[in-house]
Target: Ribosomal RNA small subunit methyltransferase I
Amino acid sequence: RGTVVLAATPIGNTGDASARLVALLEHADIVAAEDTRRLYALANRLGVHVGGRVVANHDHNEREKADRLLDDVAAGATVLVVSDAGMPTINDPGVAIVRRAIERDLPVTCAPGPSAVLDALALSGLPTDRFCYEGFLPRKHSDRIAHLRSLRAERRTMVFYETVHRIDDSMAALLEVFGPDRPMALCRELTKDYEQVRRGTVGSVADSVRTDPPRGEMVLVVAGISDEELAAGTAAAGLDDDWQPI
Ligand code: SAM
Model:
């Protein structure tokens, strides 16, 4: 039997590619890539010859592809799964093949590496002992507000992925739900030349987004509710009477 290997790829800085990723690109029998052009571009930058068969594996065809790829694994192939950047399965394809491999009792392993969630969390300066990854907020403003309201009593540091198109709306939603004083960090272009971390509060980061709109890829890291806010009770925290801390 072969193996499925999930491998993280750089999120901006090619130098973050691991030696293991390079070896896998050279030697895997099959490379299942979210976008094959991006895979070849990465291989070019790394000076690597992709030795195996390359197949496209994106969100839309992942489930149907999974079983065919796993037939190859059952027959002895090493199938390398990569996404466009960072760790596959983290808001990226890869989940379907992991699930099916587990169901079919086929081996899965991981060649870890860059992922924006941990990079941003570590750089934020906010508590890291407990955190929750929230992925992307819903697209519609009203759904964002509803989702953030469900997090009002969250004590863990929260990590949100964001895009340049919706950052204004997200900052407005954060202000509305958490108020201006909650500590947060906006981390952009991580590992790239123009990496920048804007640390402050929801209010100060919202101001900076207005006066100096951030470009590129970004992650928002927001502190959980503080003990003081909790102690101040439901009124000060703007919480309903039936609200309970998580
Ligand atoms: N699988 C990836 C990972 O492990 O981080 C995430 C893929 S998700 C489709 C893309 C989002 O990740 C971006 O919108 C942004 O929020 C975040 N991201 C990826 N690369 C980043 C970078 N270099 N700097 C800041 N955020 C980044």
Observations:
- The radius of gyration is 21 Å.
